[in-house]
Amino acid sequence: MRTSVLAVVGALVASVQAIQKVTRSGRYLYTQDGNRFYIKGVAYQEQGAVVADPNNPFLEPSNYIDPLANGTVCQRDLPYLQQLGVNAVRAYSVNASLNHDTCMKMLSNAGIYTIIDLSLPVNGSLDRNSPSWTTNLLDLYIETIDSFSGYDNVLAYNVGNEVVIAANGTGAAAYVKAAARDVKAYLNSKKSSSLVGYASIDGDATWLDPLANYLSCDPSGSNSGSAAIDLYGLNNYQWCGNSTFQSSYAGTEGQFAGYNVPAYFSEFGCITSPPRLWTEVGALYSSQMSDVWSGGVAFSYFPAQSAQGQFGMVTISADGSTVFVNNDFTSLKTQYGSVTPPNIPTQSSAGSTAYPSCPQPNSSFVASNHLPPTPNLAACQCLQDHLSCQFTPQTQNYSGIVGPLLDYACSLVGQAGGNCLALAGNGTTGSYGPISGCDPSVMLSYVMSEYYLGTNLNPQSCSFAGNGTINHNAPSSASAANAAASSCLSSATGTFTPQAPSSGGSSGGSSKGSGSSNGASVASSDAKAVYYVGVMLAVGFASGMWTLT
Ligand SMILES: *[C@@H]1O[C@H](CO)[C@@H](O)[C@H](O)[C@H]1NC(C)=O
Ligand SMILES: *[C@@H]1O[C@H](CO)[C@@H](O)[C@H](O)[C@H]1NC(C)=O
Ligand SMILES: *[C@@H]1O[C@H](CO)[C@@H](O)[C@H](O)[C@H]1NC(C)=O
Ligand SMILES: *[C@@H]1O[C@H](CO)[C@@H](O)[C@H](O)[C@H]1NC(C)=O
Ligand SMILES: *[C@@H]1O[C@H](CO)[C@@H](O)[C@H](O)[C@H]1NC(C)=O
Ligand SMILES: *[C@@H]1O[C@H](CO)[C@@H](O)[C@H](O)[C@H]1NC(C)=O
Ligand SMILES: *[C@@H]1O[C@H](CO)[C@@H](O)[C@H](O)[C@H]1NC(C)=O
Ligand SMILES: *[C@@H]1O[C@H](CO)[C@@H](O)[C@H](O)[C@H]1NC(C)=O
Ligand SMILES: *[C@@H]1O[C@H](CO)[C@@H](O)[C@H](O)[C@H]1NC(C)=O
């Protein structure tokens, strides 16, 4: 009788059709049945609080509402997502501590994939003005991946959104690429088939094209994809109103012809010529573009304010119970419903992905082919344990004080003839200080210790107005401190497969982020902890101060 019970269970399981795994071959995406997969998506995230400020020209939100954590909301919205005919939603910020089962399973059962951005507002993203790739950020990304790893409908994880926004900021691409490398290694170690993506702002071809090529290239020149993104996203708002392929997309199409990995429009839907007709859908999913682009994500389901104006396809009643759709919704639904993108090439003729060598840096694209090392939590924790003066914040919300304190401590060290070079990295020169991968709070302990040791262990010099505590177990001479620090950090220079932190391992950072916001073409320019370090680097060079070399 045992067999028949199993047979019945098997039949029941089979009757709920599981969502198909999506994989890439060459530069295309395919479902398990061998058909090409095109993303027909919509951005799905209620906008967080936006503080209008001259320092926030792109109106980036300062907090977020996890769109996949409230089952009531997902149940409310699912019929509308189905009416739109989407097969994917993009979520810009999610909270790894919350439960996503209801939303993720509901979407999966409806055949809807998710594209999950790993970054968070404020201190949870790669900072375009002062980039670093540090243990706290890697651990945040890993925690998010772990909390979504049980779902079968995570199409991709984005390691960044619009981190690079201009030629003079292309050095930050080295950090994006390092993040993609480490996230990819982590996903591989978990046998996850989710893709690693990046979503780029649109821009001048002289830096946009090399950036795309750089993110998908092999710096070692041996056709390895280990440091390459799997999926390139372009936030493209070129098609406005009643445009045409020729006038809006032909140039972009030419720029990306032959691109080596799958690509899609990670945002589209210009609002400058209302009403939105969404006629770009016809072009994007046609043979004019299908050789490069695997579809796109329309921006945005929820209302969203950006520097360009007001987006959105629905409004929600004040009590959160009811959805009202607008003309944007109806038009997009019609357009999505009327396209049938070409089912070519076949998967067998798509080949494997080639990874060309990386573009040579020049004046419009400056990122080095020497990437930051994998952030090494064990090394940074070892360092922290051996530092003689430790940052011990008296507030839970210390992300706002790390920056000013780093600025202050580095200025003291500078006045005494030392420097903060060990904390700094530079994606243009490809040089990364021995502590540049540590959490900013560890960086701060390091600089505090530098100052404390340099003043012959004067207890006052570890106070920092009550933010520092003397570690009596630490080495108390500069040479012993150097030996201990060097020993901790000796393994922190290379690339390795990261592991999940053992629990409570990561502690906060203070660098404010770019990119995680749910808004079209967003950016941020707040001062950041590591930015302060950069400012202080100019001060002095090593003398009697204790400085790691
Ligand atoms: C994530 O959710 C937890 C649990 O509700 C909450 O304590 C925490 O503040 C949230 N984090 C963010 C950044 O919203
Ligand atoms: C890049 O150029 C812009 C405008 O020209 C300027 O505001 C910004 O500070 C520059 N960024 C860097 C990192 O030099
Ligand atoms: C830099 O190289 C890229 C190709 O990688 C090219 O498109 C761009 O025009 C070059 N810029 C300059 C200033 O030469
Ligand atoms: C868009 O173009 C079509 C075809 O040329 C035309 O019928 C329609 O009126 C135009 N709509 C708007 C809003 O410009
Ligand atoms: C989920 O959303 C509904 C509708 O907006 C709201 O009433 C409810 O409080 C939310 N639940 C949680 C746990 O936030
Ligand atoms: C944390 O501190 C920053 C600045 O120091 C402040 O802007 C922010 O509102 C604080 N957050 C909370 C949750 O108190
Ligand atoms: C990185 O190095 C380049 C080239 O030396 C320099 O122009 C740039 O200012 C440096 N960036 C930082 C943040 O120090
Ligand atoms: C810690 O440093 C911050 C920033 O400089 C300062 O506002 C605060 O008073 C200091 N002391 C304590 C106990 O937080
Ligand atoms: C951001 O800062 C808060 C403290 O204000 C900290 O709890 C959190 O871990 C930080 N996040 C990251 C990714 O560093």
Write the layout of secondary structure elements.
Blueprint: H1 2-15, E1 22-25, E2 28-31, E3 39-43, H2 71-84, E4 88-91, H3 101-109, E5 113-117, H4 135-148, E6 154-161, H5 173-189, E7 195-201, H6 205-215, E8 231-236, H7 245-256, E9 263-268, H8 280-284, E10 293-298, E11 304-306, E12 309-311, E13 314-316, E14 323-325, H9 327-337, H10 347-350, H11 377-386, E15 389-391, H12 399-415, E16 425-426, E17 431-432, H13 440-454, E18 468-470, H14 478-489, H15 529-537
Parallel strand pairs: 3-4, 3-10, 4-5, 5-6, 6-7, 7-8, 8-9, 9-10
Antiparallel strand pairs: 1-2, 11-12, 13-14, 15-18, 16-17
Helix pairs in contact: 2-3, 4-5, 11-14, 12-13, 12-15
The structure holds 2-acetamido-2-deoxy-beta-D-glucopyranose (9 copies).
Can you give a write-up of this model?
This protein is α/β, with parallel strands linked by helices and 549 residues long. The protein folds into 2 domains: 328 residues, TIM Barrel; 138 residues, Methane Monooxygenase Hydroxylase, Chain G, domain 1, CATH 1.20.58.1040. The protein has 15 helices and 18 strands. Helix 4 links the parallel strand 5 and strand 6. It binds 2-acetamido-2-deoxy-beta-D-glucopyranose (9 copies). One 2-acetamido-2-deoxy-beta-D-glucopyranose binds next to helix 6. One of its GO terms (cellular component) is side of membrane. Keywords: Disulfide bond, Glycoprotein, GPI-anchor, Hydrolase, Lipoprotein, Membrane, Signal, Transferase. Belongs to the glycosyl hydrolase 72 family.
